Amino acid sequence: MAALALALALLGGWELYADLGPVESYLLPAPHQVAAALADDRSLLWSNFTSTAGEIGLGLLAALAVSLALATAIHFSPAVRRAVYPLLIASQTVPVAVMAPLLVAWLGFGIAPKLVIVAVICFFPIVVTMLDGLAGVDPQLRKLMRTLDASRWRTFRLVEAPSALPALFSGLRIAVVVAVIGAVFAEYSGSSDGLGHLIQQALAQLQTPRAWAAVVVLAAFAVAMFALLTVVERRLLPWAHRTVGVTT
């Protein structure tokens, strides 16, 4: 309820400023204009949303696959950690606005550069949180597995990987939010559809309510995916969310 009250207050302030402030409506539309665009342009928004959502979903899957492989290799091999980890950090220092047009020029205007951009942006938080989760495993559990003469791989499979799953979900929740940003930048650099392309087109035509409506759709999608991952985590890993009882 507190979040809803805050959202309504912010919307009310935005409405008053847009209606009574010095900014023209074609620069800052009021919330009721954005809501009207959501209704009037729903078919246009939906067709472009499906394209962007597909890019985000496939990019996230690619990032997850690469991240799990890299995190596992780094965890098992100090040599791989020394060689790869600096490159992982360096990959996040290249601005998306610079990387996107270069990838479009290299891979063309299809879906490939968009998937690469989303994957590059998303894999870093997944790798880092997964490595933190693997490093944070209770040493006593590892000692117990050695006592049972378990192999390194068996210890990883039965103890370390399950213990790191909450951290993996944390990384996924971060990744799903930044994936939206990556997809929009990728579509800015070269695309014939998608919400990023629609925003760029609407702004050029001074159709700012439509552009803001696309932003609302993107934000709602990110929030929904974040919430979905939270629910999935709670269902799959109930032991990671035990409620601590309060004694009186």
Question: In summary, what is this structure?
Answer:
The chain is mainly alpha-helical and 248 residues long.
Largest sheet composition? none
Computed over alpha carbons, the radius of gyration is: 22 Å
Main CATH class of the domain at 51-196: Mainly Alpha
In what range is the share of β-strand residues?
A: under 5%
Low-confidence stretches: 243-248
Name the overall outline: elongated
CATH superfamily of the domain at 51-196: MetI-like
* Terminus-to-terminus distance: 27 Å
CATH architecture type of the domain at 51-196 = Orthogonal Bundle
Lay out the secondary structure:
Elements: H1 2-20, H2 31-40, H3 42-76, H4 78-91, H5 96-107, H6 112-135, H7 139-147, H8 152-189, H9 195-204, H10 208-236
Helix pairs in contact: 2-10, 3-4, 3-6, 3-8, 3-9, 5-6, 5-8, 6-8, 8-9, 8-10, 9-10
Report on this structure.
Residues 243-248 have low confidence and may be disordered. Helix 8 (152-189) runs parallel beside helix 9. The protein is elongated and about 70 Å long. With 248 residues, the chain is mostly helical. Helices cover 81% and strands 0% of the residues. It has a domain at 51-196: MetI-like (MetI-like fold), CATH 1.10.3720.10.
